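User: Reviewer 2 asked us to show a designed sequence for the structure in our supplementary figure. I'm pasting the structure tokens here. Could you produce the per-position amino acids so we can include them in the response letter?
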């Protein structure tokens, strides 16, 4: 993969890079997995007469049992925010009410971002050219993928490097690669300086110590 570049100015700004075929397949596979999880969560949400009448979707009132979905759709209130609420039913009621009202919109936003990534990924590898709005969607989807992988790896803060023979070592390589891709995309979005299109032979990120090892 080549690093992200901000090209153009004003309404013509594009955030550009180039992805190898295997990188596109990897990203598409992970985004599709997230999409399946979110769609299943949405489809199993309760339906009532009021939501059918008004068209306003009602979400689950309980947090997901699945660890990955729990990372993607966390509680709105955390015990460490107001410790005095932990022991009573107030926190559970608060989370349940907020989740029921807001979770459908959150899922829709995540699915929309995932759809943008799938629509803008080159099928067999190649150039990626994003508007700033599309790049924001990529950031959302990359965050969700990293959250899902983080749940698998048990990452709560900065991950420690797993030994090469660990069953999840390859997943951590992917996690680290996604972190770099996302960080460089943020830098490109924040850059206000116009960048000349680069020489195709330059700017290859390579795999180095952080890239996925295949």
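Assistant: Here is a per-position design you can include in the supplement:
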């Amino acid at each position: 993969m080549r690093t992200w570049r901000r090209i153009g100015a004003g309404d013509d700004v594009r955030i550009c890079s180039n992805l190898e075929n295997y990188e596109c397949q990897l990203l598409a596979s992970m985004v599709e997995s997230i999409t399946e999880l979110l769609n299943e969560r949405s489809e199993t949400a309760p339906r009532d007469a009021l939501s059918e009448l008004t068209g306003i979707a009602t979400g689950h009132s309980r947090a997901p049992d699945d660890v990955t979905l729990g990372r993607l759709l966390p509680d709105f209130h955390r015990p460490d925010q107001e410790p005095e609420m932990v022991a009573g039913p107030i926190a559970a009621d608060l989370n349940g009410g907020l989740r029921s009202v807001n979770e459908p919109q959150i899922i829709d936003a995540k699915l929309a971002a995932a759809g943008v990534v799938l629509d803008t990924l080159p099928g067999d590898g190649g150039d990626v050219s994003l508007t700033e709005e599309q790049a924001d969607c990529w950031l959302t989807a990359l965050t969700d993928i990293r959250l899902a992988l983080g749940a698998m790896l048990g990452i709560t803060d900065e991950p420690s490097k797993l030994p090469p023979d660990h069953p999840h070592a390859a997943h951590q390589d992917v996690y680290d690669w996604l972190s770099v891709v996302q960080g460089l995309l943020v830098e490109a979005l924040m850059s206000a300086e116009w960048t000349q299109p680069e020489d195709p032979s330059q700017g290859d990120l390579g795999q180095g110590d952080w890239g996925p090892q295949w």
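For the response letter, you might also mention the following. Residues 2-48+102-190 form one domain. Residues 206-214 have pLDDT under 50 and may be disordered.
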